[in-house]
Amino acid sequence: MPDHVIPPPVQAAVPVAGGGSFPVRRIYCVGRNYAEHAREMGHDPDREPPFFFTKPADALLTGGADMPYPPMTADLHHEMELVVALKSGGADIGEAEAIRHVWGYAAGLDMTRRDVQDAAKKARRPWDMAKGFDHSAPIGEMVPAGGAVPGRIELRVNGAIRQSSDVGKLIWSIPETIAYLSKLVRLEAGDLIFTGTPEGVAAVTRGDLLEGMVEGVGDVRVRIA
Ligand code: MN
Question: Which of the residues in the chain have pLDDT under 50?
């Protein structure tokens, strides 16, 4: 094995509640997975199969660090989401076996340059620079799946409730999402899935404090700097 010609990139990881860290391979995200959010974005939630986009693993922002307001946008939106972490994977995973691949959960934010996304949609261009920019995935501590039952999902900005729903309202459930995604790509240990955001997405500005929680899972906290 020849030596690396540059130092290896740092392994992305999410801290686990109580100690240790979960190394991350890929980040998948589900689009429009709550009916009320699909409607607020101008879509009919009943007619669409799930669709996916990705963020780079090193877009994760952990440990409650400040999120620098990103360049090239004037419309940075919050999307509060339940994040699912896989301990194993495969292709063509059946719905009945899907949950066995889950290591744990976390509360996360799919931060979005909404103006860049709107322009991409109009021009039929990719969403990557709207979704996968640096620090675009703030995430809280991960908890093991055993015993964790994700319930209410909520986001406060400067103390005021902006998003409030329940993970039970996912259009595509966690097993359905894993099964469908595994038909498109082979899933592996270390993969994260941001499962989609409920209604109430809106812009944030410098100085705003975002405090999200998923009942039964945990919190995510980030200040926009
Ligand atoms: Mn999202």
Answer: none
